[in-house]
Design goal:
11 helices, alpha+beta, 430 residues, Pdz3 Domain, 16 strands
Length: 430
């Protein structure tokens, strides 16, 4: 337990340190006085001073800060943030997210050098399937799925998982082995099942709901990720094998089902009616990873970062449109728990696999941190960039006190959201 917590904190800390290091280095390069460079937040554990900068380690290992002279005030004397040109300030603010992308890129190089990466190269197509009859063949590279450009196999997997597979008609663009580009359209084979909207897995305490889909029966009944299934219609469920066996004998058919589940140490009973769900069968397989040349490693490292950037942006869009809720967000506690869970899942497979898995977590987290910080919201780097870009266009700054008030209000709201998410993470974990 202690080991996985330390690893998780280390990974989280590295991504934050690199982010703040970006701000720090560009501030120094532009002659801005950095008053304090801190790791963590809360009370100071240890500190030292060098070259006019206080370097400190805080008690709580989540976050960090690069505090610059005059950054949040109207000071414009020598060495202050506001005394520098608008483009110098833009470079300093943007450096944090940029350094996160650089970190993710170098981690991707290591992972892809070891495990490889691949375009969505088709490896097998079921004989007699609609896909085969439409002309899809082993060796084809899928470059577009339903109008969305596909760069790597992981991206195709994500699109089909998150957006779902159309049940009426599917359009693919593929690159044939001889280089020919072809558009393939087909009507997939469909299957109808009754579902309640959840994913699950075994854990030390039993069968855990690892994901509960919004706007589905289970979520509507109040079940959340992290809850444990106790019984179905009186049949005890102690693990996934019990659930699978029950499903084999009693598949959901649209009739109401009585569930017992454990939430925050309390057992609750609900009645849920599964809903009919018609879905398309995917009758082809494709490569996620294949070894790459040195040039290929660099190419697919870029594509890997592009994939995660796009994934984060899509997730933000789904949050705005209501496809995700605030309860689906994870804060530092949730991130540490996710990293710890990933470590537990792979530690038995050897040091090398474990290291590569942890590097993948760094890629995910660092890309996420970089993109999220560029959102045009007050108190974030993106919010600061909005004010600086406006200043560059109108050639004069917005009133410093007004900008400060906006950022302060944003910070208060952001901290309130963080507290809410942290509490939710703790409740889910416990």
């Amino acid at each position: 337990m202690i080991v996985k917590i330390l690893i998780a904190v280390l990974i989280f800390g590295i991504t934050v340190i690199i982010h703040e290091l970006g701000h720090f280095l560009l501030a120094k390069a532009n002659g801005i006085t950095v008053t304090e460079f801190s790791i963590g937040f809360g009370p100071t554990v240890v500190k030292t001073e060098k070259g006019g900068t206080v370097y400190s380690l805080k008690l709580l290992p989540f976050g960090g800060a690069c505090q610059m002279l005059g950054e949040d005030g109207e000071e414009e004397g020598e060495g202050t943030f506001n005394s520098k040109s608008v483009w110098a300030r833009i470079s300093v603010v943007a450096a944090g997210p940029v350094f996160n992308m650089i970190l993710a890129f170098f981690c991707a190089i290591f992972v892809i050098s070891y495990a490889g990466s691949s375009p969505a190269r088709v490896t097998e197509v079921a004989d007699g399937s609609p896909e085969a009859e439409a002309g899809l063949e082993a060796g084809d590279i899928i470059t577009s799925y339903e109008g969305r450009h596909i760069s790597i196999g992981k991206e195709l997997n994500s699109v089909m998982t998150v957006q779902g597979v159309p049940t009426d008609e599917i359009t693919l663009e593929v690159k044939k082995a001889d280089g020919e580009k072809k558009t393939i359209t087909y009507e997939p084979t469909v299957t109808t099942r009754y579902m309640m909207g959840f994913n699950y897995d075994d854990c030390d305490r039993g069968m855990e709901f690892t994901y509960v889909q919004q706007n589905m029966p289970l979520a509507a009944a109040g079940v959340v990720a992290g809850d444990l299934l106790v019984s179905i219609n009186g049949a005890p469920i102690t693990c996934v094998a019990d659930f699978t066996a029950y499903q084999t004998e009693h598949p959901f058919d649209g009739s109401a089902v009585t569930l017992e589940y454990e939430h925050s140490g309390k057992t609750k009973e609900i009645m849920v009616t599964p809903v009919e769900n018609t879905y398309a069968n995917v009758q082809f397989s494709y490569q996620l990873r294949e070894k790459q040349s040195p040039i290929g490693v660099l190419k697919y490292s870029v594509l890997e970062i592009k994939y995660w950037v796009r994934t984060v942006i899509d997730s933000v869009g789904m949050l705005i449109t209501g496809q995700y809720s605030v309860n689906d967000l994870s804060g530092p506690v949730g991130v540490v728990d996710a990293i710890g869970t990933a470590y537990d899942d792979v530690k038995s497979q050897g040091v090398l696999v474990t290291v590569m898995t942890m590097l993948n977590m760094v890629i995910l987290l660092s890309s996420n941190l970089g993109v999220m910080n560029l959102l045009p919201l007050p108190a974030l780097d993106g919010g600061r960039l909005v004010f600086l870009i406006i200043e560059a266009i109108r050639r004069k700054p917005i009133r410093r006190d007004l900008e400060g008030m906006v950022h302060f209000a944003g910070l208060v709201l952001l901290m309130a959201l963080m507290v809410y998410v942290m509490i939710h993470d703790v409740q889910r974990i416990l």
